[in-house]
Amino acid sequence: MADFLCCEVIDFTQATLSSEKALAFVSDDAFGGMTMFVGRVRSANFGRVVTGIHYDMFDPLVLRTFEAAAEQAKREFGPALRVYVGHAKGRLGVGDLAVIVAVGTPHRDEAFRACRLVIEIIKHQAPIWKQEHYIDGSSVWSEGCTLCPTPTNAEHASHSHAHEHPHEHTHPHEHAHEHAK
Amino acid sequence: MITLHIALFGALRQFSSEASIALHCPAQATVAQVRQAIHAYAKANWPASALALIAVSALASEQAVLREDQIIPENLKLALLPPVSGG
C-alpha cells in the first residue's frame, strides 16, 4: 500500500475507530491543513428510533475501493497529501463511530475537497451495507447505490467516476426489507 | 461445466442460510451468462422479491466490479453485491 494512505476495516468486536489515529497519520510538518469526516450511528432515521446498525462488507473490495478513492484524491489534489480511511464492521450502537476519513495537505482547500471526494466515493462505491435495527425489534436494509463496473486505468485517467454522477446511482424499486423481531 | 461459488451480501443474505451459492456454469462463461444462471437459481429457490434485488446487484471479484462481457476464470472468487449503503 502506498505510504500516503492508511486504510482499514475494523471488526467492531475487536476494536473501534480512532480519530486520534486518523489525524496522527495524516499529520506532516509540511501540511498546514487537515480535515476529518466522522460518521456515527444516530438515534433516529425517517422518524424511527434506531437502536443500532449492522454493517456488512465485502472486505477485499472495500479496501480496494478505499485505495482507489485515495489514489484519485492524490491525482486531483496532490501530490502532497495523506489520507486515512477507516470503516467499522459488525453491529454498532447509537453514537458509535462507523467511518472516519482524514486528509492532510499543505493548504485547506485541497484538504476539504479531498476529504469530501473520498467520503462520497465510499458512500457510492464501497461494497458496504447497512442494516438498521429499530426499537420495536424490526430491521431494514438501507436503500443504496447500484454499483457500476470498476473503470480501467485508462478510463480513470479520462474521467472522474465519483464526479460524473455522485447522486444518480439509485435503484428504481422499493428496497426496504423488513425483518420482524 | 465448472462450479462457481458466489458470496452473498447485504439484503441478499436473507434468501439463503449459506453465505454463498454454488452454480454450475459453462467454462469461459461471461458475467452476463453467470447472471442468467443466478437468475434461474433464484427463480427456482427464492421468493419473487429476490429477483428484483438481483437485477440491481453487481457481480464482483475481490478486486473489481465486473463488466457483463468479462469472462469468468474458473477459480475466481465472486460476490453478488446489492446496492451499497456504507459510509
Description:
- The complex is a heterodimer of chains A (181) and B (87).
- Chain A has 181 residues and is an alpha+beta fold.
- Chain A is 30% helix and 33% strand.
- Chain A has helices spanning 19-26, 59-77, 108-125, 153-158, 161-164, and strands at residues 5-11, 33-40, 44-45, 48-57, 82-93, 97-105, 128-134, 139-141, 178-179.
- In chain A, strands 1, 2, 3, 4, 5, 6, 7, 8 and 9 form a nine-stranded mixed beta sheet that branches.
- The radius of gyration of chain A is 17 Å and the shape is globular.
- The termini of chain A are far apart.
- Chain B is of the alpha+beta class and 87 residues long.
- Chain B is 26% helix and 23% strand.
- Chain B contains two helices and four strands.
- Chain B has helices spanning 31-45, 48-55, and strands spanning 2-8, 20-25, 58-60, 78-81.
- Chain B has a four-stranded mixed beta sheet, covered by helices on one side.
- Chain B starts with a strand and ends in a 6-residue tail after the last strand.
- The mean pLDDT of chain B is 94.
Total beta strands of chain A? 9
By helix and strand content of chain A, what is the structural category? alpha+beta
How helical, in percent, are the residues of chain B?
25-40%
Report the uncertain regions of chain A. Answer: 160-181
Quick structural overview:
The complex is a heterodimer of chains A (181) and B (87). Chain A is of the alpha+beta class and 181 residues long. Chain A contains five helices and nine strands.
Considering the chains and any ligands shown, give keywords for the structure:
heterodimer; A: 181 residues; alpha+beta; nine-stranded mixed sheet; 5 helices; 30% helix; disordered C terminus; B: 87 residues; four-stranded mixed sheet
